[in-house]
Design goal:
Elements lengths: L6 H10 L6 H22 L30 H5 L5 E2 L2 E2 L7
Antiparallel strand pairs: 1-2
Length: 97
């Protein structure tokens, strides 16, 4: 195991992440990344042959409801809230010349 991250890799990751790290921060990040890779190696040792692939830990169901109009065409009541209306539509200030 003992994944070792090179200085070049650390520089590249810093560029990708748009980070400016001090030498001390780079060394700490290298150690942390090495530990992460070691852990991934350990996980890769597990036998997952009987485990179904999944994208979420919990079951994901479609929670959307059917799109049904419930309030119908109530134009008159809706236009009562408009500061100004003309020909059954809202009148708004002109925004484009």
């Amino acid at each position: 195991m003992a994944n070792v991250i090179s200085d070049e890799t650390m520089e590249y990751v810093g560029i990708l992440a748009k980070l400016e790290l001090s030498e001390e921060e780079k060394e700490k990040a290298k150690k942390d990344m090495g530990k992460m890779l070691d852990y991934i190696d350990k996980l890769n040792e597990l036998d997952t042959s009987g485990v179904e692939p999944m994208s979420h830990v919990f079951p994901v169901n479609n929670v959307f409801r059917e799109d049904v109009v419930t309030n119908g065409d109530d134009r008159e009541n809706i236009l009562k809230n408009a500061p100004e209306e003309r020909d059954g539509a809202f009148v708004v200030p002109k925004t484009v010349d």
